[in-house]
Structure formats: C-alpha cells, structure tokens
Predict the 3D structure of the following.
Amino acid sequence: MAQSDGTGRTAGSGGRSIRGTGRRRKAPSRRHRILTRTLCALVGVVLLGGAGAGYLYFKFNGNLTGVDINAALGRDRPKNIDNGSMDILVMGSDSRSGANSSYGKDEGGARSDTAMVLHVFKGHKKASVVSIPRDTLVTRPDCTKDGRTVPGERRAMFNTAFEVGGPACAVKTVESMSGIRMDHFVEVDFTGFKKLIDALGGVPITTTKPIDDKYSHLHLAPGTHTLGGEDALGLVRTRHGVPGGDGSDLGRIELQQTFIKALLKQVRSIGVLSNPGKLYDIADTATKAVTTDTDLNSVTALTGLAKELGGISTDDIDMATLPVTYDPVNPDRVLPLTAKSRQVWDALRNDQDIPKAALKGSAGDKGGTSRYVK
C-alpha cells in the first residue's frame, strides 16, 4: 500500500536487507533501537573484556528477546539494495502496563513514543538519524498480528502502527513511508530505559532555563544535572514544561536528540572496563531492556554490530526530523511534506547526506526546545 499522506513511496521501491553483523544477507532480518549503538557497544565491551566470557555469553543471551520481522512481513517489503550502508528502526514504547502504570492509564496496547531511523553510512564512520513524529498522519498499510489481518487506515497516527500490529507493523509502516528496507529493529519501554540510565550512573545535561512539567514528573532548575533514569525519562517525554517550546511532539523530539548525544558521550566516558561490577550491571540491564529482530537476538550478533558501529563519534551523527507541516484539519497532528520527505528518504537510500534544503521550512525544526538543553 502506498503512503499517500507522506512521501508517496510504495513498499516495492528500493531499500535494504536486514543483517546481523555487517554483511548483508540474501535472506534479510532486523533488530535495533534508539539506544542502538549504545547497547551494542556496552554488550561488546563486556564480552570482549576478558575472563568469564563463556558464562556471560549464556547469561546475556538468555536476557534477549527477539521478534521475527522477516517471517511476519514475508516478501512484501522494499528491495534489498546492498550498498554497504545499514538502516535500523529504533523505537521507544509507551506501554502503561505493569511497572509503567505510573505514566498513565493502561489502554491495552503500547504505542511508539519514540521512533527514529538510524542510517549508518557505507564504511560505518558516520550516521544520520531521522526522527518520525508520533503524531504524523500516514496511510498505515495492512498488517498481520497473531494470525489475523489488521486493516490499513488512511490518516492514521504513525504511533498506532505499533499499537495495532506490534513491531512488524511499525517496520512495515516505516518501509511503506520511506521505500527503504530496514535492516534491524530495536525497541525499549519506559522501565527498561530508566534501568539502563541508572546502570550507567546517570547522564549529564545542562539546562539554561527551568523545566517544570507535572505530566512527565520533571522539575529541573537551570544548571548542570546528572539525570538518573526517572528524570532522564521525564526529559525525553516532556512537551509542556520547556520554556520556548510549542507544547508539541516536535519539541520533545529535539530534547530526545540532544539527550541521545549526551548519552553516547557518557557511554564513552565512564570507563566501564576498569569497573567489572559496573560493566556487568550495564550489560545485564541493557540486554534485558531491549526487544530486537531475530537477526540481532544473540550476543554474537550484537557484538559484531558493536564492532561495526563503535567508531562513530557523536560529532559524526547528524540528527534530523522528518519534514512535516501542521495538519490544517487538526493542528494537534502533522503531515509529511511530500517533496521534502522524499528528499530525505532518497538521500538515505542513496547513502548520501540529508540536504539542508529538505529540512528548511519544516515544522519539525521549530519545536523551540533545543536552545534550552545541551
């Protein structure tokens, strides 16, 4: 099904395969998420760190949860183009069940609170990240869940794909929008995210204005803070309490992108190899925190990916938001800017930098929060 409200691309246009350790396979598969590079680097450090590797392999392997995206989607996917690059759909889910109930009522299904396409360039020395606003109206394709067909829908919010059809439907929707085959899928929920940040010892950020948001339970004075899991989650979820923000998901995306870079810097700086206890806690937490595609659902695959991505510095990661405009029918929703979105997806498909002109004039770059957190 073509995605009419966005780029107009169909699931049959060019794309990529899924792979576990770097070389594309003819029979693709996938796996990864928002903390994708972080998780893989942490697991890789642990397993390559020395004694006890055999025990750790079985321990951490048993922590991992996988979803067979290939089996769920079959051949109804974009063409595999083997150009040495890699695309990973990274998602944070907002399930309110169980330990996540303090963040709102459990309405029976998780939605994708965060969605990013991570494009790793050929040579794996730099990357682009494209955030997809959760409130983007798209044409959601038909999906299958638990053996039943979930009919597609026009003008559906993007984050409902995960809710009605799980990871496979989220992947199918992104592939339909972009015409790019995702190589991997990674998902983390609220609780897993908090535990991972706590295991890292927190992440330092600096605020230039006070942030006060009762909805995300975040209250920060101006200054430098080391955010634990609860406050880190509050930061990446807040949309109401940031001065200068527009109160929308677009402002929240800017905060998420800023936090991810701070998180990656923290991972590089904590020196876990000199602290075996911290090293173990981080790897144990990280492997429990994620759900991946079955090609990444092993320590071997994750460590292989870690080696490939470990050379990308935060300065070599370009962050962007899918070009959108406010929906004239409902200003609480956004629509992809067709021509500009096509420029973004075409750039990734061709392993090129996203042209600045594609982002100019997009509501996605006007959330207003990036100046207040660094």
